[in-house]
Amino acid sequence: MAFDSQDLPAGGISSPPKRSDLVAEEIKRLITAKNLLPGDKLPRESELQSMFSVSKSTMREALKSLEVQGLVKVSTGPGGGATVVEVPLDRTFQLMQNYLFFKEVRIEDIYQVRKLLEPELAASAVPFLTEAHFAALEENIACCDPMAEHVEDPLAQRQEEMNFHDIFAAVCPNPFLRFSCEMTNEMIRQLTVFDNEMPLAEQQRFGSANTGFHRQILAAARERDVEQVRALMSEHMQDAMRSVKRMHGKLEGRLILDSEMSRRNATRNARRGRRKKGSAAPA
Questions:
Q1: Domains of the chain, earliest start first
Q2: Which of 13, 49, 171, 279 is at a distance of 20 to 30 A from 144, taking alpha carbons?
Q3: Beta bridge mates, 251
Q4: Computed over its alpha carbons, how large is the radius of gyration of the chain?
Q5: Averaged over 142-166, what is the pLDDT?
């Protein structure tokens, strides 16, 4: 498909879209039309150039745009080219932060959404939980128990508790509900800060309450009691909001940059690796 001046909007004060942006949009249509999935390769660059009658530089700029958006990964060398990929959660989180850059979002706003969505997500996931999921939930509860030995960082435990909710999200049959909860939980995980003077006893109180709710939710889920899981998760979300307020929790007043997020995720993954090897240090 070739592009000419008829592809560009006439008149108006807006600048016409760049040719590479138009090509990027057509490649998205191509992915949809061919029902390409993550891992599938796009046609070779030369084939795409011929298909859309554009120069090599325009095609590379279009592919780079799609790569920045997280939709493709471009590799070089023999067998290289553009491969369709699933947009990672981290990239989506960054885009959401950009959208919220000039908006004042409070932690109370985040928990208002959690209180509405988390009970429904957990309830919808119950029929799809396997023994492997139950084992993962048990492991998460054990490592986040504030009464466990050798607790080095209680606040890191509170962040790790978010993975309990991620396990339910992973099997939620509603992709939009799953995405909404994952984004909400990622905001809490990445952006929540607490008063540095908060007493250790208060941190343990928060952790004990969370651990108690998680144990009850897991027990109800094992019984496949959907309504009980929904009710417990609703109570859990309300209690968590009260605890966060009591601990003077708030959202950081600035964005978490890509480099910072990469370091945080690397640290979190390292902690999980140590735990799987039998280390006493909790995540």
A1: 17-84 (1.10.10.10), 89-276 (1.20.120.530)
A2: 171
A3: 192
A4: 23
A5: 79
